[in-house]
């Protein structure tokens, strides 16, 4: 089962993405609702948050839930100031903590030692897992990538970050999280440079968050906007005498359309168009803001078709057209390394083994449990399936209950990276 439980102090919660589900311990749930028995939901009202009894399904009394706001009956308002924003704020290590960090580095284990003035290099390409990787596993890990950005911001041995970005095979949610950590890292005042030999929308979305973007003369850029494709097999099945029978509830359920239809349905087209419009609108806003240009100018430039790297440089969308070794020579000059010496660099895998406490990153006493689950959802584990594949409801429920019953966790964050699966298992 692809599920991992790890923990983080509350004070460093900002280094993670917004929670998908936040579970307060049973001892504090009475503070979140007017009455202790029924659950509650939150709605916005004025400058605070109002907690109302959650209406029950198929209950005629649920229509009166919204009336509680107007009549102010049994309503508790909690000011927004009491809720943490979750935004990262870089606080330099000063005073006694500086001495403590130096002592930690002096007695650090061999695999945690990094030369002073080193540049952290990370190659962001291919698939990015939501699970924490072990030292023996290959591939990129989203938690470790984000943690490396946080550690590098505080590490006095790291002078900056050099990113190789190409061919990402992950969702927009992961891309957005990595981009946010790039922006957080820049608060430390250290440089972050991107090199992009191949670039589409996702790659450029990450690269434009960096201070400088470099590309080789032969770089392949394809910024044409967003597209979505779908294949339909009904015609093939009809030709061989097979009639598919698909059951579905709801007109926007499109999982069986590949077998049951010859073309895309209007509802599915509407849904995919709304998703693409939302992603593309956000892409235009962030890119135009990062490059100091008008949104209309970026959109018109994309509509013209971006094929040549020279055109990107002319428009100010990349910093320069140079090769990787030229970028390294430029970083040598920036970090004060002699031209006949090698640039001290530490790669993603080695730096992932550096512990936070070595760098003096503040750690709170209270713990938040982070439960990570990825893969398709099923009720029970199949006898032929690999133990690390998919989300098994029985094990997932057991993990959540163990965290809920434990007294050392103040809350839990559940991160789910799944294409879907068994509806009953998801409900349980």
From TrEMBL:
Keywords: Hydrolase, Protease, Serine protease. CDD domains: S49_SppA_67K_type. Residues 185-337 form the Peptidase S49 domain. Coiled coil: none annotated. InterPro entries: ClpP/crotonase-like_dom_sf, Peptidase_S49, S49_SppA_67K_type_N. Belongs to the peptidase S49 family. PANTHER family: PEPTIDASE S49 DOMAIN-CONTAINING PROTEIN, PROTEASE 4. This is Peptidase S49 domain-containing protein. It comes from Stylosanthes scabra.
């Amino acid at each position: 089962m692809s599920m991992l439980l790890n923990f983080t102090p509350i004070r460093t919660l900002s280094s993670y993405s917004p929670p998908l589900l936040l579970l307060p311990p049973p001892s504090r749930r009475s503070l979140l609702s007017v009455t202790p028995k029924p659950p509650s939901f939150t709605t916005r009202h004025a400058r605070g948050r109002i907690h109302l009894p959650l209406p029950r399904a198929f209950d005629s009394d649920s229509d009166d839930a919204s009336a509680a706001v107007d009549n102010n009956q049994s309503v508790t308002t909690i000011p927004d100031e009491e809720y943490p924003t979750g935004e990262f704020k870089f606080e330099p290590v000063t005073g006694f903590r500086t001495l403590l960090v130096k002592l930690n580095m002096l007695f650090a284990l061999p695999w945690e030692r990094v030369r002073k003035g080193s540049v952290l290099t990370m190659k962001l390409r291919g698939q990015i897992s939501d699970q924490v990787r072990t030292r023996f596993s290959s591939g990129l890990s989203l938690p470790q990538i984000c943690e490396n950005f946080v550690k590098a911001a505080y590490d006095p041995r790291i002078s900056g970050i050099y990113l190789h970005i190409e061919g990402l095979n992950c969702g927009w949610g992961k891309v957005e999280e990595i981009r946010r950590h790039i922006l957080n890292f820049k608060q430390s005042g250290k440089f972050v440079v991107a090199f992009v030999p191949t670039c589409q929308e996702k790659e450029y979305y990450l690269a434009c968050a960096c201070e400088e973007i470099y590309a080789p003369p032969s770089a392949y850029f394809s910024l044409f906007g967003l597209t979505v494709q779908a294949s339909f097999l009904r015609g093939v099945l009809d030709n061989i005498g097979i009639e598919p029978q698909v059951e579905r509830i709801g007109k926007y359920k499109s999982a069986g359309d590949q077998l049951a239809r010859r073309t895309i349905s209007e509802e599915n087209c509407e849904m995919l168009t709304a998703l693409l419009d939302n992603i593309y609108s956000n892409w235009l806003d962030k890119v135009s803001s990062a490059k100091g240009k008008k949104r209309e100018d970026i959109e018109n430039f994309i509509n013209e078709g971006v094929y040549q790297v020279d055109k990107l440089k002319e428009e100010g969308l990349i910093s320069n057209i140079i090769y990787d070794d030229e970028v390294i020579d430029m970083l040598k000059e920036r970090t004060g390394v002699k031209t006949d010496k090698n640039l001290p660099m530490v790669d993603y895998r080695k730096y992932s083994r550096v512990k936070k406490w070595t760098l003096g990153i503040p750690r709170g006493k209270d713990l938040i449990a982070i439960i990570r689950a990825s893969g398709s959802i099923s009720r029970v584990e199949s006898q032929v399936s690999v133990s690390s594949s998919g989300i098994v409801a029985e094990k997932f429920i057991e993990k959540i209950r163990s965290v809920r019953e434990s007294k050392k966790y103040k809350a839990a964050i559940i991160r789910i990276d799944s294409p879907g699966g068994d509806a009953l298992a998801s409900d349980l």
